[in-house]
Amino acid sequence: MGPPGAGKGTQAAVIAELLGVPHISTGDIFRANVSQGTPLGIEARKYMDAGEYVPDGVTNAMVRDRLAADDCAPGFLLDGYPRTVEQVGELTAMLGSSAQRLDAVLELTVDVDEVVARLVRRAAEQGRSDDTEDVIRRRLEVYFEQTAPLIELYRTQGLLVQVDGLGEVSDVTGRIVAALALES
Ligand code: AMP
Q: Cys-Cys with 25: which of 79, 85, 93, 145 at CB 3.0–4.6 Å?
């Protein structure tokens, strides 16, 4: 977890590789569907381009499908999901029905000004259509309204691991590895 621009995608790819589990990024799955022009992509794009969350029903069904795949049986790393209280409930139900559980919920903590600067840089580098300044502002608002409260929820479950997300990618990776090892 962490606001847009915290480096979740970058770190999730590295950590999933280290753990040897699939990296499941809901944002990446939506973007792949958008570029392939699938019905899911056409639906998701309306929300993504406005900086809003894709409706829970659509997102939950997509994650349910993905977690049911064989490669997820030994474990997986979710990136960008759950993001709403309803998604937390759905994920708990999905895990319960497959007798799986979360080992940890990792939060990358960052300074909001730094995050905006990162997103503006990423917009220039990658040309993401949801990285314009207005949309960036809206994505941050949505994060703080809908997703930040989940951090407290996972803290009370004893699952939360917080790591400083500022600095070089490799330094942040080192902190995550150390923090997760401490938890295990
Ligand atoms: P991300 O790459 O994780 O920042 O996701 C990009 C966009 O995809 C978000 O701004 C949302 O529009 C959508 N999205 C990704 N994950 C979710 C989710 N769990 N729930 C709703 N929308 C999502």
A: 79
Question: Ligand 1 pocket, 26 CB below 6 A?
Answer: yes
> What residue ranges define each of the domains in the chain, with the CATH number in brackets?
8-180 (3.40.50.300)
Give the per-residue pLDDT at 183: 44
| Antiparallel, parallel or unpaired: β 23-25 and 77-79 | parallel
Q: Is 128 a catalytic residue?
A: yes
pLDDT, one tens digit per residue, over 87-126 is 999 999 999 998 899 999 999 999 988 888 888 888 888 8
Is there a contact between 127 and 49 (Cβ–Cβ < 8 Å)? no
Give burial (CB, 10 Å; 0-12/13-18/19+) of 73.
exposed
d(CA 164, CA 151): 15
Contact (Cβ atoms closer than 8 angstroms) between residue 173 and residue 11:
yes
The ligand 1 atom at the shortest distance from the C-alpha of residue 130 is 10
Indicate the pTM of the whole model: 0.92
- 11 Cβ inside 6 Å of ligand 1: no
Q: How far is residue 173's CA from residue 12's CA, in Å, rounded to a whole number?
A: 9
Q: Quick one: tokens of 134?
A: 């207005």
What's the start-to-end Cα distance of the chain, in Å?
A: 19
Question: Both tokens of residue 56?
Answer: 């829970």
| Ligand 1 mean position, distance from CA 54 (Å) | 7
